[in-house]
Amino acid sequence: GIVSKRPIDIIFHSFGLIDGYDLNTIEQYRNLLIELKLPVDNWFKVIKNSDQLRAAVIELDSDRHTFPYGTDGAVIKVNQIQSHELLGSTSKFPRWACAYKYRPEQGQTVLKAVTIQVGRTGVLTPVAELDPIFISGTTVSRATLHNQDEIDRKDIRIGDTVIIEKSGEIIPAVIKVNLDKRPKNTAQFDLYSHVNGKCPSCESNISREEGFTAWRCNSPACPDQLIAKLKHFGGRKMLDLDGLGISVAEKLVTSKLVKHPLDLFDLEQEQLANMELEPAKLNSGVKSKPRRFGEKKAGKLIESIQKSKDLPLSSWLHALGIPNLGESASKECSRV
Length: 336
Ligand SMILES: [Zn+2]
What we know:
Elements: H1 2-5, H2 26-35, H3 50-63, E1 73-77, H4 81-87, E2 97-101, E3 105-118, E4 124-135, E5 138-144, H5 148-154, E6 161-166, E7 173-177, H6 191-194, E8 206-207, E9 216-217, H7 223-233, H8 246-254, H9 269-273, E10 276-277, E11 291-292, H10 295-307, H11 313-320, H12 327-335
Antiparallel strand pairs: 1-2, 3-4, 3-6, 4-5, 6-7, 8-9, 10-11
The structure holds zinc ion.
């Protein structure tokens, strides 16, 4: 499977119950791991006061870029294990450990164009198409611009050199414009006129509720909305449909095999297997190859569609994508 093709590694840094060893400090625990030839993190320091703590956090920030894995912060722990029990924990976190997050990495690149994405609820989101830039270990060619208000506030224009930020798994964002590099004859960006007042997916007229910043497509037959709804419907915390990714959802909608999420339950394995998937545009700007979905994946998807019928009510409520009915509200509603 995928796992065997990807280099996966592990480092040990914490423990649950320790049996058979008498350990007083985190330092002793780490030395034990090394003695047992278990992999540990590259960087560790015992510090005695806040000055040393500050110095260590700064030192780690420059050292961490040489590690063979990505990092975004430092973990600071009380060394004496006996004190851990004494300090206890809040409802979520222990009081004897905390994380310090470093500033996300930034980069400068040119905003070449703005494209508009239509989401599950019909909201139109402007997306920055960037000159690809390598940042935080990945190539970034797109960043979210959130909405018209954000664009106005930062006065972001096509052709601008922009400063973007990316940290860990978070979607890259445009922080601000480098005005010194603004070319002549740029125009303020207006989402409504950019799409001529029409949804880029279905060409229905777009509208905006008073007091709201988001422009919306209100057509119930909008293909991009349906694609996003399908993806949500099959999400891991919803019906957990194996293999219903963005390109499969796209093909199901464009080939008109699915006009409503519930149509998934009428699909046959052969129909699915014969689907030719469009090349996907990856975040790095690279396009993948077109490919047939195939019997094996089709079988798995059909199987998980059948299995989803036995999932609890809360998963189904969540899958429907009713506004403001998220994971915990769905659980609470199905409980009462
Ligand atoms: Zn639409």
